[in-house]
From TrEMBL:
SMART domains: CBD_II, Glyco_10. The active site is at 274 (nucleophile). Belongs to the glycosyl hydrolase 10 (cellulase F) family. InterPro entries: CBD2 (IPR001919), CBM2/CBM3_carb-bd_dom_sf (IPR008965), CBM2_carb-bd_dom_sf (IPR012291), GH (IPR017853), GH10 (IPR044846), GH10_AS (IPR031158), GH10_dom (IPR001000). Residues 340-374 are annotated as: Disordered. Residues 37-337 form the GH10 domain. Keywords: Carbohydrate metabolism, Glycosidase, Hydrolase, Polysaccharide degradation, Signal, Xylan degradation. It catalyses: Endohydrolysis of (1->4)-beta-D-xylosidic linkages in xylans. It comes from Phytohabitans maris. It holds the Pfam family Glyco_hydro_10. Its EC number is 3.2.1.8. This is Beta-xylanase. It comes from the Bacteria. The keyword Hydrolase applies.
Amino acid sequence: MTQQLRRRKARIAATWSGILAGVAAAAAMTTVMAGSAVAATTLGASAAERGRYFGTAVAANKLSDSAYTTILNREFNSVTPENEMKIDATEPNQNQFNYANADRIVQHARSQGMQVRGHTLAWHSQQPGWMQNMSGTALRNAMLNHVTQVATHFRGQVVAWDVVNEAFADGSTGARRDSNLQRTGDDWIEAAFRAARAADPNAKLCYNDYNTDDWTHAKTQAVYRMVQDFKQRGVPIDCVGLQSHMNNQSPYPSNYRTTLSSFAALGVDVQITELDIEGANATWYRNVVNDCLAVARCNGITVWGIRDSDSWRASQTPLLFDNNGNKKPAYDAVLQALNNGVTPTTPPTTTPPTTPPTTPPTTPPTTPPPGTGGCTATVSLNSWTGGFVATVRVTAGASGTNGWRVTMTLPSGATITNAWNTTRSANSGTVNFTNVSYNGRIAAGQSTEFGFQGTGVGTGMTPTCTAS
Ligand code: XIL
């Protein structure tokens, strides 16, 4: 069997569904070839032997550079479009989608048997002008529509999505980052994840951020608590991405393995999504690889570019290949670490993390006293050909509510595929939407919102609200 064929098979094997088969196949091939273990000679093949992928960010306009594609095709078995799937690239004008450059990258990846990470569906940065100027419900709906449309377009072609990117603030507060999306309400992140799950049920859904490498940092802890909360409440989340842009201000932390294993212990995969290291410190690169190999659910590493000249931080020379495409010492360190890596047994052997304090979920009142004064509901729609997102605002009357029910009749042919912040009695026809535990109580004159996504046409729904 030729090296090339072996590499291609290793690449094809490196999908989430085929991890175990891949490890077995790679091991079997190696044995047949040499009668003893043979070290893999590329990053992707070596990672595949560990049941993982090794990827890189790719720019569509470099796919015509043969020096670039030679390294890409030889070394990597996963790609992340560096800019081409971002909001400004895929929806430059509202409801006008442009997938040309992203599709080019996906096609290239497919032709080489590489998997694709999607990056990113909802982010405060690289928003098109029309979105930057939006706020409130209009922005929430536009964001959900974007998530739905883009995830639907790439359904079946993207193994994992960075659904939400960089939603937490730096520094010691552990707070959310202020942004137009954040100002639509704290639940914008879970709403984005729900919309992504509905659009592509088979893609792994990740939360991705930077400066979340050091386990003791407030930002790391805040992301941890959000993921823990999502898992407890059943918000669909499958993975956490650590960008891991490391430099002298954000050095490799000695507790990095604790960070990886702590997230993994929540029941999510962990991926290193944008690795680059100032000066390409070979020791730090080696440590990152060893830490990932030590955590069973750390299932892949992506570096943020191929040659230093491809890097968004080119002056830091942070990548594995120099400007001429030559392997740097960091490359050798990474390949050696991958080849030496021992496939971990489950459970991981890392020290269990100290669980950060969690806020217990608020228990709903056991026997709520009946309210009076009622409630009102209004519905706003964001429609596209074949589907819609409805946002329903429930406003309490003079007595406030302890609970509420909104009844609406969907137009014939319309079917609900997904709903958030409510429990529904049916998916079509006349539907009762009732409050969930955390949004039943509304003070007099105040409001809460729930929403749902549907196929068909959603126009003409008239909500009626009943308070309890
Ligand atoms: C960077 C790209 O590499 C640049 O080409 C672009 O000009 C700006 O964005 N965090 C992320 C990535 O999630 O999308 C960013 O990529 C780097 C920081």
